[in-house]
Each structure stands twice: as C-alpha cells, then as structure tokens.
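I hope you will forgive my troubling you with a question about protein structure. The full record is reproduced below for your convenience:

——
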Amino acid sequence: MAEVPSVPHWLPEYVGLGIDGVSIGGNDLTRLMLGVDGDSEECAELFDESDPAVLEAMSRIIGVARRLGITSSLCGQAPSNRPAFAEHLVRMGITSVTPDAVAATRQVVASAERRVLLDHALAGTNHPSRPA
C-alpha cells in the first residue's frame, strides 16, 4: 500500500524485494499530504483527493511503478464518485482500481481512455502507460 509520500523514493527498493504492484491508499495519502482528517466535522471540507499536492504524489507513484514495470492501482472511492478524478488517474497511467470501484468507474475510465488516446493521436504520441 502506498499511503505515505516517501513511497516513490523507496519503490525501487520494494520491487527489489519482490513486490509486483502498488496500491495507492487514496484516503490515507490525502490525510498525510494535507494534514486533514476527512472524517472530522471541523475540517472535512478541506479533505480533497484531487488537491494538486495529492495528485502530484499519486502521479509520482504511478510514474515510478510504470517505469519499474509493476502495476499501480488506487484503493478508494474517488474514481467512482468523481469522473474527473478517474480521468486524472487514466492520464497518469494507472493500471487498475479496486474491485469495488470497477462497476462504477468502467464507463468513466473507458471515456477517459478514448479522450487520452485521441489527444495523443492528435499530438502524434502514444498513451502514457504504453511503451512507444
């Protein structure tokens, strides 16, 4: 589980120890990146998995995982609750979501992948999660 901001730094070491995939703990990573408890009545509105700092941390984890040839997934409800968030993940190159989010995100991810592929075709590049 990738739940702390240090994971991108240590991921090569973890792969060397035998892991073959990483699952981003969206809620915990957000808590640690923002210092906000999403369950708190006083500050729940500040808890946002799509905060730029959180998205950057997720992007780094996904990018390192892709570079090392391992799968990356997200454990959390954000992809099924917010289509724009799911599209961010697709554009980053994530390879899967947790099983409980599959049904709710299938159409969102398919639409996002079509847009990403079209964007890359127009730009003359490949999809970011697929080798050139």
Observations:
- The chain has a mean pLDDT of 83.
- The chain has one domain: 6-126.
- The two ends are 29 Å apart (CA to CA).
- The chain is about 55% helix and 10% strand.
